[in-house]
């Protein structure tokens, strides 16, 4: 039985496996510039964040209808459930879809269909032949693309209004895409507006960008969690603050290797980060591209870093502590 865990750093568009990409392309009459799934997999030779993002945005062309988004989320939740994920806080990139003429309603309604289906333990109990199967509770976090303008982010928040009511599917906002040259402060206004709407706030920082971006995300955007945050280790004062304030970091070890933030997994600073007292969690980021889902990331760090069973349990526990679940919901999910 895999450890029960929450996944807090997962881009739903990054769960698009080559097989599903080809199936959706066929359904939508789109020709992909790859002969087959093998050739597409071979294109996954990233050297940095930008070379990954180019492929990630290009492949989104196959996502057009509510059904496409429902199928995408359904496939992710099936894999996540099999790896012990009990709760997932799922990022999506509305601007990347709107740029292709797909509005936020299509994305949220489509994703929502799959999330509702997996939210109840009963719905998949029937499919697993009556065995006790867990559902997955889910929340959506809408990300702004940091290489787009601040005005575009504000327009996106406005367009999302129908889905932002308390109890609605979108619980928070995030910040992703190309980091260097796009500091968090660029998005001060939209984060203030999001806070006024009662939304939770997170941001990618310190993945490829400097430690100062982590500080800025905390101080200017008021984020409650830092996505990645790896480079905080270059700044002892920042580490001390993150420890003191117990700011959760959503680390993605396999992503860090594929995007060359670390050379090999054995060099990953996760053990040092845990030793320092940082509230670390282990997540998958873009699992179809980076070689594994949440459980695969746990297995990889166990093997490469020799983490003890106690440390792995602490990481799983941290994932619930760092989640946006209320206490009673958290207890049920664990
Ligand atoms: C992303 Cl790994 C990563 N970093 C920044 N933005 C992203 N969007 C999807 N994956
Ligand atoms: Zn990410």
TrEMBL record:
Family of this protein: Belongs to the metallo-dependent hydrolases superfamily. Adenosine and AMP deaminases family. Adenine deaminase type 2 subfamily.
Enzyme active site: 207
Cofactor(s) required, per the database record: Zn(2+)
Source organism (scientific name): Streptomyces liliiviolaceus
Gene Ontology, cellular component aspect: cytosol
Residues annotated as site: Important for catalytic activity: 228
Binding-site positions, substrate: 286
EC class: hydrolase
UniProt remark on cofactor binding: Binds 1 zinc ion per subunit.
A GO BP entry: nucleotide metabolic process
UniProt-recorded name of the protein: Adenine deaminase
Entry-linked Pfam families: A_deaminase
Domain of life from the UniProt record: Bacteria
Sites where the protein binds Zn(2+): 9, 11, 204, 285
């Amino acid at each position: 039985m895999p450890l029960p865990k929450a996944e807090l750093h997962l881009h739903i568009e990054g769960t698009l496996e080559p097989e599903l990409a080809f199936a959706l392309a066929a359904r939508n009459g789109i020709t992909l510039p790859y002969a087959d799934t093998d050739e597409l997999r071979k294109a996954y030779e990233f050297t940095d964040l930008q070379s990954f993002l180019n492929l990630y945005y290009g492949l989104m062309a196959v996502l057009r209808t509510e059904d496409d988004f429902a199928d995408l989320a359904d496939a992710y939740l099936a894999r996540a459930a099999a790896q012990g994920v009990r709760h997932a806080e799922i990022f999506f990139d509305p601007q990347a879809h709107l740029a292709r003429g797909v509005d936020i309603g299509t994305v949220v309604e489509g994703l929502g269909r799959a999330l509702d289906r997996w939210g109840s333990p009963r719905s998949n109990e029937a499919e697993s032949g009556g065995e006790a199967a867990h559902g997955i509770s889910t929340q959506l976090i809408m990300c702004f693309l940091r290489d787009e303008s601040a005005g575009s982010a504000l327009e996106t928040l406005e367009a999302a209004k129908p889905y932002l009511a308390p109890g609605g599917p979108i619980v928070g906002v995030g910040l992703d895409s190309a980091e260097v040259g796009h500091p968090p402060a660029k998005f001060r206004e939209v984060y203030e507006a999001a806070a006024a709407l009662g939304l939770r706030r997170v941001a990618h920082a310190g993945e490829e960008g400097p430690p100062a971006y982590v500080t800025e995300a905390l101080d200017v955007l008021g984020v409650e969690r830092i996505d990645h945050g790896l480079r905080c280790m270059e700044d002892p004062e920042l580490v001390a603050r993150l420890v003191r304030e117990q700011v959760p970091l959503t680390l993605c070890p396999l992503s860090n290797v594929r995007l060359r933030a670390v050379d090999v997994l054995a060099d990953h600073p996760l053990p040092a980060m845990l030793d320092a007292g940082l509230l670390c969690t282990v997540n998958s980021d873009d699992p179809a591209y980076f070689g594994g889902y949440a459980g695969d990331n746990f297995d990889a760090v166990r093997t490469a870093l020799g983490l003890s069973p106690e440390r792995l349990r602490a990481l799983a526990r941290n994932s619930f502590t760092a989640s946006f679940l209320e206490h009673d919901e958290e207890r049920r999910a664990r």
